[in-house]
Specification:
Blueprint (H helix, E strand, L loop, with lengths): L9 E4 L2 E5 L11 H4 L1 H4 L6 H7 L5 H26 L9 H14 L2
Antiparallel strand pairs: 1-2
């Protein structure tokens, strides 16, 4: 598993996922880390379909993924705030992505 799927670590071409980058955190472990991408990367309303297609997405894994997605969303929002403030390493365009992901997590879509 990748372990750190968020918008800066995926490559999209013509609206289709075409690659994944930044494998510094690649490891074996809890699939919930990658399942969290359902809320962080995918459009609203697609998480349940994603889980249906994933072979090992039981309810406990989905609950863990929801918590991890919340954490990743907050991280993206913080990086966005840091960018807005001009702080080193800040990414102003990450804030809206994090807010949208958190909204999807909270709505369960």
């Amino acid at each position: 598993m990748h372990g750190d799927l968020h918008p800066a670590n995926v490559v999209v071409s013509d609206g289709t996922l075409s690659g994944i980058v930044d494998f510094g955190a690649m490891f074996a472990g809890d699939p919930a880390w990658d399942l969290a991408a359902a809320w962080v990367l995918l459009p609203a309303g697609t998480a349940s379909r994603f889980f249906d297609m994933y072979a090992h997405a039981d309810e406990a894994a989905i609950r863990r993924a929801r918590g991890l997605a919340t954490m990743k969303s907050l991280f993206l929002m913080l990086m966005g705030q840091n960018g807005d403030r001009g702080l080193p390493g800040g990414k102003p365009n990450w804030g809206p992505v994090g807010r949208a992901a958190l909204d999807r997590v909270l709505k369960g879509v």
